[in-house]
Amino acid sequence: MNAESRPRLNRLPEWNALAKHREALGEVRLRELFDAEPGRGSAYTLRVGDLHIDYSKHLVTDETLRLLRDLAAARDVFGLRDAMFRGEKINITEDRAVLHTALRAPRDASVEVDGANVVPAVHTVLEKMAGFADRVRSGGWTGHTGRRIRNVVNIGIGGSDLGPAMAYEVLRSYTDRSLTFRFVSNVDGADLHEALQDLDAEETLFIVASKTFTTIETVTNATSARTWLLERLGAGQEAVAKHFVALSTNAGKVSEFGIDTENMFAFWDWVGGRYSYDSAIGLSLMIAIGPDRFREMLEGFHLVDEHFRTAPPEENAPLLLGLLGIWYNNFHDAQSHAVLPYSHYLSKFTAYLQQLDMESNGKYVARDGRPVEWQTGPVVWGTPGTNGQHAYYQLIHQGTKLIPADFIGFARPVDGLSAELEAQHDLLMANFFAQTQALAFGKTPEEVRAEGVAEELVPHRTFLGNHPTTTILAESLTPSVLGQLVALYEHKVFVQGAVWDIDSFDQWGVELGKVLAKRVEPALTEGADVPGLDASTKALVATYRELRGR
Ligand code: F6P
Fold first, then answer.
1. Based on CB atoms within 10 Å of each CB, which residue in 62, 94, 132, 327 is the most buried?
2. Tens of pLDDT along 375-422?
3. In the 8-state DSSP scheme, what is residue 112?
4. What is the pLDDT of residues 56-93, one digit of tens each?
5. Which region, left, alpha or beta, applies to residue 318 given φ > 0 means left and ψ of -120 to 50 means alpha?
6. Which residues constitute the catalytic centre (predicted)?
7. Rounded distance from Cα 301 to ligand 1 centre (Å)
8. What residues have CB less than 8 Å from 147, skipping those under 6 apart?
9. CA 85 to CA 94: how far, in whole Å?
10. Mean model confidence pLDDT for the chain
């Protein structure tokens, strides 16, 4: 059935059944659900690879889950999933296949795009990356003056920055500490300025990461970095080859910039930017952690890909997490979704997920070209949990908004902590468990009174609870576990996009801003009369020029 003839989501009987069920369920209480089913904790837990996923603290019954799965079946989510894995062009607005899963497919797998198996090319690039990473790590790759590389600066933005920057932080304890890594993304010159402050040009390698190699922020920063390098080395263009490599799909633009395509690591148009850090875009990460650890990460991704591809609906974790999100987004009017890691190393994880989720599912037009009549992607936000506890958790506990949240934690701290710091891990995790308990079950007025609280303070100190959370617990934060987590969220986002009937793989909304910025720039620099500027922007630009002394 093509997109035009598919019934609209909100006309489906399965959608209406969920709406009715929501009404009938009313204000279901988690306390009651747990009282009625003492084994709910383990009954509502899935195990995928190393991930224990507890979804018992959700405002759902078996009936809710069944109805949600019915909706997924009616939208043929698994049909679209299979088409994605087969390499069909499910990114309809760009007429592209969506094959990030091929980036972590084993060498003997076969995935065809336009009749050609893409897996051999994936492994050829991985080998080229590994060879290069090993040379940098061993000191075999030297700069223009013969000194070994000690600093690696990744220049990219969006998916060409967030992925490697996030994963570098997550796997920090696995990195070669004798190397320094910096990630520059912002076109604000301060970003590059600060990143280069203490670096020695002779020992610095720039990795220019850009799928298109036309992104203005990246090309501008890369150009400034080249100037910095050549000035400091007192060298000409010939020095670039030893200090610049490119990660891109656009060989023409790479060589136009002056980077030898020998030093380019390729990927393909079927890899979306926000799904790309397990491609060549992960080169900085591979240099940091080494090729073997990078491969372990890819295996973790693949494990969850296989789970998503083969697990039945009842046990399929990405399907389940996607559907739970739909339950709150579409049937409880939840506007946002918090991701709260209890790991310092995951400090950039939520920022990474923001692009993955919000750039994928921030769409108001359905695949049939008509506006949707239902809510699509939520606002995704969050920071490491303990810090959040002393900032915004108050609103989650006692505010007026329903905010479903994912709690992510690990049984073991990373290796290498002192005994004293190692012991702190239990305190961290005590917070982790206490928070989801408090959010779910709250504190009744009776319990507050029993603590001897003055009557007038009882309402203030009562917690209604009933705040839904998913708990994801793993033994430790390994490269494989990172791959598993990212793939879990990638496929969750896929499920939601499939149900909402939107193209999760384009990002036209971002394009408009890019075009307008280029158009407005001459107004700032030259005072040019740019046609089409609205009165507000015109006045602001005039003030800007005045303040800038122009
Ligand atoms: O933000 C829009 C976007 O196109 C992202 O999807 C992408 O990750 C980012 O820009 C960077 O693009 P490129 O890798 O082509 O420089």
1. 327
2. 999 999 999 989 999 999 999 999 999 999 999 999 999 999 999 999
3. E
4. 999 999 999 999 999 999 999 999 999 999 999 999 99
5. alpha
6. 359 (proton donor), 390, 514
7. 22
8. 200, 202, 203
9. 17
10. 96
Contact assessment for residue 27 and residue 286, using Cβ atoms and an 8 Å cutoff = no
- Structure-token pair, residue 18: 């969920």
Contact of 300 with 476, CB cutoff 8 Å: no
Partners of residue 46 on adjacent β-strands: 53
Is 472 strand, coil or helix?
Answer: strand
Helices assigned H by DSSP within 204-290: 216-233, 240-243, 251-257, 283-289
User: In angstroms, rounded to a whole number, what is the distance separating the alpha carbons of residues 48 and 109?
Assistant: 22
Per-residue H/E/C for 45-108: EEEECCEEEECCCCCCCHHHHHHHHHHHHHCCHHHHHHHHHHCCCCECCCCECCCHHHHHCCCC
Residues 6+ positions from 280 with CB-CB distance below 8 Å: 125, 129, 247, 248, 265, 266, 267
Which residue among the candidates 23, 390, 451, 456 is catalytic per the annotation? Answer: 390
Could you tell me the distance, in angstroms and rounded to a whole number, from the CA of residue 7 to the centre of ligand 1? 33
Of 434, 440, 433, 464, nearest in space to 35 by CA: 440
As given in the structure block, the two tokens for residue 77 are 């989510």
Helices (H), 171-250: 189-196, 216-233, 240-243
Judge whether 446 and 403 are in contact, CB under 8 Å. Answer: no
Is residue 359 among the annotated active site residues?
A: yes
Find where tokens 């909706």 sit: 71
- ipTM exceeds 0.90, yes or no: yes
Q: Rounded CA gap, 303 and 481, in Å?
A: 10
For residue 416 the two structure tokens come to 């290498």
What phi and psi values does residue 463 have, to the nearest 5 degrees? -115, 120
Q: How far is the CA of 487 from the centre of ligand 1 (A)?
A: 19
Sequence letter at residue 210: S
Six token digits for residue 293: 């650890």
Cβ atoms of residues 445 and 378 within 8 Å: no
Q: Where do we find the tokens 């507890």?
A: 54
Which residues line the pocket of ligand 1, CB cutoff 6 A?
Answer: 157-160, 210-212, 215, 218, 273-274, 359, 507, 510
CA dihedral 438, 433, 316, 326 (to 10 degrees): 30
Cβ distance 113 to 271 under 8 Å?
Answer: no
Helix, strand, coil % (nearest 5) of the chain?
55, 10, 35
Out of 98, 211, 506, mutate this one to test ligand 1's pocket (max ligand atoms within 8 Å of CB): namely: 211
Classify each residue of 154-172 as buried b or exposed e, where b means 16 or more C-beta atoms within 10 Å of its C-beta: bbbbbbbbbbbbbbbbbbb
- Among 93, 162, 212, the mutation site with the greatest number of ligand 1 atoms within 8 A of its Cβ is 212
pLDDT of residue 310: 98
